[in-house]
């Protein structure tokens, strides 16, 4: 039996699988392929490496955006590894494909407590502040969604894992949403035109900084933090042509609302979209430079805005029927 200090505990779950780590903060995270059918951790590994290499090839220009370092892909048949480690998982867990990568460091306790004090139902706050699972706190920046007409459910729940901060909440907390919009635009441009992937279902989270970062993001509420980019199992390669543009447009609207939305009705969101659009074009131009592909980023934006208008008209029609 493994020593308690060496046991793995679950720090997250997704449709592709569960994520585990030991109690040692500097040890890596392990993503197991034990989720829904049709999801490929092998594809996650391949695309993760491609995206990581794309970002690291750009040196220090984008050092406040981090793709975790992928360390090793463990198959379910790698008995050398599993004989040493299977006992560190709970009883009943069997070998399966596992991706080992740098762990995303959670936000520190003072930030977690501020989130609880601000957003948690008061009767749940003492539990959340002492719950081990809620120490694994990262924030999802939802710049493409505002909370409207929020009603308090009598079936209340709360968790700090993958905590969503909608754009109105970010404004209320005094976060500079234009900085985050620019960072997300940079990240998307790099994935499209350096990594050559469509960014389908990729996750963006705000979390703590590693020690080596030179220019972290900072705010009074979140303190020093950075943008982490992860989860590439649904992320295929993208042809560098019109078909690839259409593929990237579809991926944009399938993803969670991290990015500002085209065809927004709120004036604040319209301004945020313009900022995102300009930064995406600027960074894409920098990535492609004299390439014959320089027209593709503008086509992507044009098609996004056209699709955004179509979706807005469809939504309006449904509301009037």
From TrEMBL:
<dbReference type="InterPro" id="IPR022137">
    <property type="entry name" value="Znf_prot_DUF3669"/>
</dbReference>
<dbReference type="Pfam" id="PF12417">
    <property type="entry name" value="DUF3669"/>
</dbReference>
<protein>
    <recommendedName>
        <fullName>DUF3669 domain-containing protein</fullName>
    </recommendedName>
</protein>
<feature type="domain" description="DUF3669">
    <location>
        <begin position="227"/>
        <end position="291"/>
    </location>
</feature>
């Amino acid at each position: 039996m493994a020593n308690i200090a060496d046991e793995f505990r679950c720090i997250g779950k997704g449709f592709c699988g569960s994520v585990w780590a030991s109690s040692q903060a500097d040890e890596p995270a392990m993503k197991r392929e034990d989720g829904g059918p049709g999801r490929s951790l092998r594809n996650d590994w391949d695309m993760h490496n491609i995206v990581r290499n794309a970002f690291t090839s750009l040196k220090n220009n984008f050092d406040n955006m981090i793709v975790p370092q992928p360390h090793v892909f463990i198959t379910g048949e790698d008995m050398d590894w599993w004989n040493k480690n299977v006992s560190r998982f709970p009883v009943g867990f069997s070998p399966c494909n596992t991706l080992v990568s740098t762990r995303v460091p959670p936000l520190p306790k003072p930030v977690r407590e501020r989130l609880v004090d601000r957003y948690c139902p008061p009767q749940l706050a003492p539990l959340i502040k002492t719950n081990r699972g809620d120490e694994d706190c990262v924030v999802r920046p939802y710049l493409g969604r505002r909370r409207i007409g929020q009603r308090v459910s009598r079936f209340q729940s709360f968790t700090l894992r993958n905590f969503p901060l909608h754009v109105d909440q970010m404004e209320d907390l005094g976060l500079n949403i234009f900085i985050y919009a620019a960072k997300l635009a940079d990240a998307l441009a790099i994935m499209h035109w350096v990594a050559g992937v469509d960014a389908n279902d990729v996750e963006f989270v705000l979390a703590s900084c590693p020690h080596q970062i030179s220019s972290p993001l900072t705010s009074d509420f979140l303190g020093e933090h950075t943008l982490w980019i992860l989860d590439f199992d649904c992320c295929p390669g993208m042809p560098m042509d019109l078909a690839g543009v259409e593929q990237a447009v579809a991926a944009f609207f399938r993803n969670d609302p991290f990015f500002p939305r085209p065809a927004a009705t709120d004036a604040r969101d319209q301004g945020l979209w313009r900022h995102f659009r300009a930064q995406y074009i600027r960074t894409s131009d920098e990535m492609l430079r004299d390439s014959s592909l320089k027209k593709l980023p503008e086509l992507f934006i044009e098609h996004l805005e056209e699709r955004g208008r179509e979706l807005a008209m469809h939504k309006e029609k449904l509301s009037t029927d």
